[in-house]
Specification:
By secondary structure, the chain is α/β, with parallel strands linked by helices. It has ten helices and 16 strands. Helix 1 packs across helix 4 and helix 9 runs parallel beside helix 10. The protein binds threonylcarbamoyladenylate and magnesium ion. Threonylcarbamoyladenylate binds next to strand 6, strand 7 and strand 11. The site of magnesium ion has 3 residues, from loops.
Length: 329
Amino acid sequence: METKILPIDSRSLQLAEKLLSEGKLVAFPTETVYGLGADARNDEAVKLIYATKGRPSDNPLIVHVDKDYDIAQLVTDIPEYAKLLAKAFLPGPLTMVYKSRGVVSPVVSCGLDTLAVRVPSHKGAQQFLKFVGMPVAAPSANLSKHVSPVTAQHVYSDLGGRIELILDGGKCSGGIESTVLDCTGSVPCVLRSGLVTRDMIARVAGECDEYHMVEGERVRSPGMKYKHYSPRCATVLYDYAHREEAFKAYKNCLAEGRRTYMLCDSGVAEQFGVRYVLELGRSENEIAANLYDKLREGERLADIIIAVAPEKQDGVMVGVMNRLSKACG
Ligand code: TXA
Ligand code: MG
């Protein structure tokens, strides 16, 4: 099958709507990463997402809606704190998990009685969701276990020939997937960290828990148990305190004739004058925005990526570290 990459305009939106209504898939941009969308009400279409990505069938999907969509159609038991959070952070990179009304296909949540809902802020995502007017189930638009896509080209390199349409909305500005927040309890609980941090949530909701996987317990967010985000080359991760050792390892690998790149922030790149560098930038937001793009660049160029963790470990860097250690662990 031929995969079209089209800018978002009335023609491509009409095609997107047609494909979704036929039970087919459409990739679209968001402010975090690109999504691989299907009509969330159509069992077969949602199953096609799993087949196309090679995604484990017990890892539930997020439903995406436009900002004027009344989510009470999809979910129930919305607590007061969630209303405050929605007001503060939506549209934006925060996915909220509620009790489901069972309106969308049960395949979306893999039989769980909850539903994850996201209202992306990306202009093209809003245009797309408004135009198609249906809840769109979408995981990140990469092959399962690979690095998430932040450009239409990334989507094409994973899914070209497997889907008919990629809506091109440029490079995603956020760069890591949305924060997933469980809103079914009396206190909100972060299941996956992202750009909306636990502190930001606690400031609005009064308090916020963070879920940590416990060996032997049933996982609350099934996505957490899978290996994710891996570039297709060798990787090693050093913490910031051991950056000197990372640079030594980099030189040793180069001396062995291996194509070696260091993945690090601009400060570390400058400190050592790293020549073969996948430079993440300086600010927290730059580092998050560049992470997946640089991992994908790295796997194209390098036999081995030697990564140095950012110095800061809180806030947005919690989400970055979580991805980096899964990618390079
Ligand atoms: O930024 C994002 O969230 C991107 C864009 C495309 O919106 N999407 C994304 O989807 O990252 P995906 O499928 O790669 O990750 C969805 C995460 C998984 O960790 C999954 O386990 C969790 O959300 N999740 C989905 N439904 C859930 C539910 N009902 N309860 C708990 N966790 C859920
Ligand atoms: Mg994903």
